[in-house]
Design a protein that fits this description.
The complex is a heterodimer of chains A (about 625) and B (about 150). Chain A contains 24 helices and 18 strands. In chain A, helix 9 (about 225-230) packs across helix 10 (about 235-245), helix 17 runs antiparallel to helix 18 (about 480-495) and helix 19 crosses helix 21. The radius of gyration of chain A is 26 Å and the shape is globular. Chain B is α+β, with helices and mostly antiparallel strands and about 150 residues long. Chain B contains 7 helices and 4 strands. In chain B, strands 2-1-3-4 form a 4-stranded mixed beta sheet, with helices on one face. The two termini of chain B are about 30 Å apart. The chains are: A alpha/beta (about 625), B alpha+beta (about 150).
Amino acid sequence: MTAGFEQLRQAAEEQWDLLTASDTPVITVGTATCGRSAGALDTLDVLRGELAGRDVECRFVEVGCLGPCYAEPLVTVSLPGVATVCFASVDIKGARKIAAYVAGGELPEELAFATTGSETIPGIPDLMDAPMMKGQVRRVLRNCGIIDPGDIRHSIARGAYSGLQRAMELDRDARIGELDRSGLRGRGGAGFPVARKWKFCIDAPGDTRYVICNADEGDPGAFMNRSLLEGDPHAVLEGMIIAGLTIGAAEGFIYCRAEYPLALERLAVAIEQAEQAGFLGADALGPGRPFRIKVKEGAGAFVCGEETALIASLEGRRGMPRPRPPFPAVSGLWGCPTVINNVETLASVALIFQHGADWYAEYGTEKSKGTKTFALVGNVQRPGLVEVPLGTTLREMIFDIGGGIASGHRFKAVQTGGPSGGCLPEEKLDIPVDYESLQEAGTIMGSGGIVVMDERTCMVDFARYFLDFAADESCGECGPCRLGTRQLLRILEDITQGKGTASDIELLEGLSHNVIRGSLCGLGQTAPNPVLTTLRYFRDEYVAHVEGRTCPALACRDFIAFEIDEEMCTGCTACAVLCPVDGIAGARDALHAINAAVCIKCGVCSDTCAFGAVETVQATP
Amino acid sequence: MATTNLGPVLSAFERRPESLISLLQAVQEQLGYLPPEALGTVARHARVPRSRVYGVASFYSQFRFNPVGRQRVAVCRGTACHVGGARFILEQLERTLGIPEGQTTEDMEYSLETVACIGCCGLAPCLTVNDEVSAKLTPKKVRKQFKKARK
């Protein structure tokens, strides 16, 4: 370890101690995108205002996302000599209560989510025993929601760049060996062993090499990479620098979605600070060995998550994939050998060099080592971002960590792997989440999106949703994907609109296999997966649509009607006033009735009725 | 159209074909959309044919060829939002703002669009107004939020 780094680290630790063992109160507020959308910036404003008004001196720190999105905004208060408490769902009223607590008042126990330090308070769980946190192993996410992502010293105090120092002491073979022993596989979805990818790149002929970080998290329903970039950007930078050092690159690119403005902002700050500290720049990899990182903003194309399309986009072209081989490791950016890894993969690389391969591999299964982050969303009690050892079952994730299904409803299906993945039913919930087991069940790990559905979701409509997405995002280069996804979509639209026939099901199956076989890149090769898995596990729903002329989930509009329950209707006129087509008759205090002839089935009446008087019923298209 | 003022915006980028996407992003940031004259200016700066500029600009969903409203309302159509009823949110907005998806109100105040996923899935369904996120929406909340704004 160089003396320079040691000095930096000591200074960083002093800074970190100011936060963790401060004489003045320290208040942290999670202001990542999810926190902000729950109102965290208003919460922060109120806290600042209230405490300034009371003349209480305290430090405010904006941190990233801790994970339990359902409990945002999250505020952590550390008072000298008192256990540090994390508060959940802190709205403006809650912020006032917390300000009073900081000023010496009572602890608002009803808002307390967990204690986060070594000191505890009876009746309040420790952070890792709190709802949604229990059962997780936080390694990649260990700093998210804890440190100020805008202060490199926090990251360094928590271990950042010590992995790079260690990597510099090893020779190239030892670095590859370390990665190989860790068993790390690509976290972007395909699960290719990282050590092998890097070795291919090293062995490829060429003088110039590049490192690319794929931060084009395009899967709808997934935000693991966004959270990591917003909460701990240095973890990703460190992984990229280690990659550059190992393969012999002087330049790296981060290709990040334009839809993540805050992540882009935090990356820019992190890169500037890493340059000032000397981790990036002219002598980053040793005297006279430069390494620089540039951020390129994506422009809204899902296919750019595919590595050859991403490279085309970086080169300023239409983001269209090309046949492989040659793989980017041999011929990538501008034809040069290029290592391209996902955000989480690179953050894991940094961890492996900080703690060693054996430490990393102590979790996971035989073939899938380590931990993995997942975005657990949909009809689950506690949606948010979680990290668990690979091999954890879907049931543990959904029911133990996610708290199960929202009250009054029951589990129906879980979808993994985004538009390239598939839907699994209840009987598959006990399979371990690893690359092979999911594939065997017909879906994929993907980048980590897990969408939970209850009985209100129609599986045919859900497959239609993904094909709509795939058809829209197909780049148009190859026929099987361009035309095939569109045709699959048309058939699914027919079925969900009551125009399907029994032969459509067979047609869907046959066409799906042809699209998989004939498509050029991963987008087309996996786009039919949502269709095939729903056909495999929920075939009866397809049959119900085409033969029984019903939508069992009461979701497809052409199969339903709205009716008013005589017993429940109070005649309040709320629905009649809001009906966009004036389709509800009934004076005040008189029973209302829906005119089926004009009803557009927008659902406004059902959404509006405070008495649950509007029922959804089966109707024949 | 003030395309003559694009000089300072363009000069921040290298005059090479690989700057194309960044150039288009910067121009759109400045003008709100990509008028035809601007495509020509970008082509000259990046030293590529106009056809290539149009090819790239029309490929990516971020780029627009028509002016947009001062308030750009984008409804998330991500998976979690879909499961949470995003289409009802979109339909409610179409009714409240009086425009279909992809259009702008006559007074140029509101544009209504959809976005693939804004990564706020834990608080679905959601939308953004000029990058500001509103979450955990219902048609009722949306109606309230925008009714007020329309007055």
